[in-house]
Amino acid sequence: MRIEGEAAIVTGGGSGLGAATARLLAERGARVAILDFDAAAGAAVAGEIGGHAVAVDVSDAAAVGEAVRAAADALGPARICVSCAGIGPAARIVGRDGALSTELFEKVLKVNLFGTYNVMSHAAAAMMALEPTDTGERGVVVNTASVAWQDGQLGQAAYAASKGGVAAMCLPAAREFARAGIRVMAIAPGLFHTPMMEGLPEETTRSIAANIPFPARLGEPREYALMAAQIVENPYLNGTTIRLDGAVRMPPR
């Protein structure tokens, strides 16, 4: 599907992978609505690219529905939806003091997994009402998993579970939406330059990058954005999760 001239939704578009994706889609001629919990960050990127920003907590299904409608009112119905919103706090299942991390587990799943599901559900429902393009497509949904889906490290039980859920629902969602001409894909990024990583000491970052075979560096957010754009433009990509990781396999800790 062509990007130029289409409306797009990018969640988490105020920073990191989402901001890079919003910028690239806008460069290629899309009208981009940024949905972000951080209203100021979302508005800043939207202002930069001539898009529209909506502040929303993706874990709130009703609020997501309102945000998708607000984006459509501002820019037209979206045929492209890229979900990048997420959190990544770390905690052991049972801490050294014996405390459990069930509250954190619930929070991470609500944002990362339920949030992705909420956005996909509302975006796909809106796409189903559109006329198909000349390729028979009504829309494309790109969700964000993580290499932690397969390589979860110590302290990442909640994060890995949430991203595993994102990866696992890709195929059944693609099968369900196939009759409507809507594709569903997921990207599982490895170690990228994001606000989470940029907060680490330089020595720690170098140590992490040393485990990446090639290129032996952290990924650039624009490289994630390029993959998202390639998924949109390649009509035969559907129902699978692509690792984008420089061939890294994460150690236990």
UniProtKB/TrEMBL annotation:
Q: GO MF terms on file?
A: oxidoreductase activity
Task: Return any one Pfam family short name.
Answer: adh_short
PROSITE patterns according to UniProt: ADH_SHORT
What are the entry keywords?
Oxidoreductase
Matches recorded under Gene3D superfamilies: NAD(P)-binding Rossmann-like Domain
Q: Which residues cross the membrane?
A: none
The stretch of residues making up the signal peptide is none
Its family? Belongs to the short-chain dehydrogenases/reductases (SDR) family.
Protein's recorded name? Dehydrogenase
